[in-house]
Fold each of these.
Amino acid sequence: MTPLSRRAFATAALASLLVGCGGHPAHQATAARSGSRPPSSPASAKAVQPLGRSVPIRLRIPAIGVDSSVMPLGLAPDGTVQVPPVTAHDRAGWYQHSPTPGEVGPSVILGHVTVGVYGAGVFRRLARLRRDDRIVVRLENGTAAVFTVSAVRTVAKADFPANDVYGDVDRPELRLITCGGPRTGDGYLDNVIVFAALTSSTS
């Protein structure tokens, strides 16, 4: 990452990324609890070479029927991470100050669980993913980065585990994030977070 990207990534980590769903804005929250532990590696994980930097353009998750183009996302004026726009043709979004999928570090992709009057969002079934499910990210250079799920967590937005999501890791990893849990007048109370590690790649 460039110095600017590293600063923006650190800013997002301190702010705690909270995905706004259903047309409601994102809100900031307190930092993650100290002492939290990152999820363990997937059973099928193996040592793989990191990939070069290349922007993600498509996301496929066969187990839950996701096949979406990927748009870039930056920071909102309040310092939180942008979320994809609420539209009829909902798409996933990659936080462009995080590593690209396949680079060393946690690459972050966001999506809505609902999109207001348009109904279900691209990540409506994200909570159904299970350990060892496969995630395929197609990169701009033609490479397909294949990740394997290590954990799926539902956490209260007030206890968003920023350290686990954004913290330094020594291998290529992926984070998929959406809303979840009980719905209130302001949106959803929880976030669903999928943790995955790079296990292979194809050209």
Amino acid sequence: MTVLIDPPLWPAHGTLWSHVVSDHSLDELHEFAARNDLPARSFDLDHYDVPADRHDVPADRHDALVAAGAEPVTAGDLVRRLIASGLRITERERRASRGDAPS
């Protein structure tokens, strides 16, 4: 049972983002998020998005989450372990949950 975090590599909204996942359960993920003040709005069905640098989030957030117990892994390892856990939500499932039309 491990909470994982990838490096802040994913560009969006003027910053880079990390992803925080559990390789065991969403309950474990939500408990970790609550203990570390990750806002509920940052949850995206199977992960939490964590900005590397924003006016309301410390720039060292990745390091703080590692210090709080998240295991740092590569982006590829994070995805592989999330898939292996059975918790991965596919892009098709993600679009369907938002009501987006299939493309």
